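Priority: medium. Attachment 1 of 2:
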């Protein structure tokens, strides 16, 4: 384990005013998203779309890195340049999703555990040889009557910690992503306690597995009301609750915290990140974005699978990436949304 290298990579991932784009949708997920946008799901469309995202003019001013899917890291640009090489040239650090998805947790109805530890050491070595410098593993925790259970929180924390330790052994920065899901009618208070418990158990497990926090990035879900809760908490309340939850669970030595959008709309996700940075400018760690849907929704719906729309779609990405970059320093204003792409 090269601690200096891990620390340098982690720091660069959360450099001031920069964030990540998650473009690691699995085959079934991208198929669903393409279908919604009226795009045919085939290998070439997936490749062309990922090239559209990475090659959008100017986005490398706002993006420190991108999380790729296994298929993408093995693909090339239309000129035959492997995506990881193409990204390094643009100054976008290549990362890779390495979990194998969520499966039902036996004996615990409604709860999931993430698979993918078997053979992970060998897969990490291969991804490192292809240029990946960080990785991602996502666990999901649902809120409902009696859940998340302590067992589900512990099973997922244990897997996340085993994954993180294997990453660091391979000089790959682990992004640890315990996503407390937004689905449901829960209140922001219920989300706060579920997230707090999840993060406390997670950091205890990471410590037990001798994971080095300065070379680790937390990808957190925001503390937020459920999508079906009648009255949803406002922007400041989300910012305050999320920061309080992190301060009560995450070690100060952690390299950084990035957020997933998790079903929030693009403007909502930007406003929440901005409020946290504007209200709490002196936190122990940088807070930035690692969005998939909140960055990509306007891009996909503009592209529609047509080469004629590539430039317009790329402008949509540059616009959202810029707004989130501003939000990462608390300098975003809602009025900016009136600017046309
Ligand atoms: P969303 O921003 O769409 O939640 O995706 C982030 C992610 O990486 C999910 O694993």
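Attachment 2 of 2:
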């Amino acid at each position: 384990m090269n601690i200096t290298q891990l620390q340098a990579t982690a720091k660069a991932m959360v450099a001031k005013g920069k964030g990540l784009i998650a473009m690691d949708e699995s085959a079934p997920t991208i198929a669903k998203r393409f279908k919604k946008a009226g795009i045919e799901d085939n290998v070439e469309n997936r490749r062309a779309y990922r090239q559209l995202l990475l090659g959008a003019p100017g986005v490398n001013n706002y993006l420190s890195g991108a999380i790729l899917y296994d298929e993408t890291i093995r693909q090339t640009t239309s000129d035959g340049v492997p995506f990881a090489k193409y990204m390094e040239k643009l100054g976008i650090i290549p990362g890779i999703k390495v979990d194998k998805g969520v499966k039902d947790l036996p004996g615990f109805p409604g709860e999931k555990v993430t698979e993918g530890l078997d053979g992970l050491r060998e897969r990490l070595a291969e991804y490192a040889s292809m240029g990946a410098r960080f990785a991602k593993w996502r666990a999901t925790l649902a809120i409902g009557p009696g859940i998340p259970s302590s067992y589900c929180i512990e099973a997922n924390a244990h897997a996340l910690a085993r994954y993180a330790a294997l990453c660091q052994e391979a000089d790959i920065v682990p992004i640890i992503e315990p996503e407390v899901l937004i689905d449901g009618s829960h209140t922001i208070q219920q989300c706060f306690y579920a997230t707090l418990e999840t993060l406390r158990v997670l950091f205890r497990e990471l410590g037990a597995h001798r994971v080095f926090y300065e070379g680790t990035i937390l990808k957190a879900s925001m503390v937020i009301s459920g999508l079906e809760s009648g009255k949803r908490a406002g922007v400041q309340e989300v910012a305050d609750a999320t920061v309080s939850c992190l301060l009560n669970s995450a070690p100060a030595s952690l390299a950084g915290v990035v957020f997933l959008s998790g079903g929030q709309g693009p403007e909502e996700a930007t406003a929440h990140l901005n409020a946290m940075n504007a209200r709490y400018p002196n936190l122990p760690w940088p807070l930035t974005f690692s969005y998939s849907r909140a960055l990509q929704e306007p891009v996909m719906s503009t592209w529609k699978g047509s080469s004629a729309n590539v430039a317009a779609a790329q402008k949509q990405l540059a616009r959202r990436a810029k707004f989130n970059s501003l939000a990462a320093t608390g300098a975003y204003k809602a009025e900016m949304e009136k600017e046309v792409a």
